[in-house]
């Protein structure tokens, strides 16, 4: 089963990228939405993007909401948090 990576900071994103495997899912939350050089297919919590005034960022990523994140936690194992 693929890993779900929940990324909460730009530093966490850089570390996460070193550990990604084929098929893993990455979701940027909180200050993780400030990460640069986003890998294709990366998801972002739309509430956090909007709260940080980065609405144009949604065109480069896949926006998700909390219900989507709950569904991802049900279908991925393990779940890793990057701070």
How would you describe this structure to a colleague?
With 83 residues, this protein is α/β, with parallel strands linked by helices. The chain has one domain (4-82): 3-Layer(aba) Sandwich (Hypothetical Protein Ychn, Chain: A). It is 29% helix and 22% strand. The protein has helices spanning 10-17, 46-51, 66-75; strands at residues 4-7, 25-28, 43-45, 62-64, 79-82. Strands 4-3-2-1-5 form a five-stranded parallel sheet. The longest helix has 10 residues, at 66-75. The mean pLDDT is 92.
Which architecture would the CATH scheme give at its second level?
3-Layer(aba) Sandwich
CA-atom Rg in angstroms: 12 Å
Distance between the termini: 23 Å
Mean pLDDT level? 92
Topology of this protein?
Elements: E1 4-7, H1 10-17, E2 25-28, E3 43-45, H2 46-51, E4 62-64, H3 66-75, E5 79-82
Parallel strand pairs: 1-2, 1-5, 2-3, 3-4
Compose a concise summary of this entry.
Strands 4-3-2-1-5 form a 5-stranded parallel sheet.
Defining key terms:
83 residues, alpha/beta, Hypothetical Protein Ychn, Chain: A
């Amino acid at each position: 089963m693929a890993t779900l990576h929940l990324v909460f900071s730009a530093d966490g994103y850089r570390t996460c990228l070193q550990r990604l495997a084929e098929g893993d899912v990455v979701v940027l939350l909180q200050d993780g939405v400030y990460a640069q050089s986003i890998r294709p297919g990366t998801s972002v919590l739309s509430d956090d993007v909007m709260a940080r005034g980065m609405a144009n960022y949604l065109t480069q990523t896949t926006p998700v909401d909390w219900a989507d994140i709950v569904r991802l936690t049900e279908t991925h194992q393990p779940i890793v948090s990057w701070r």
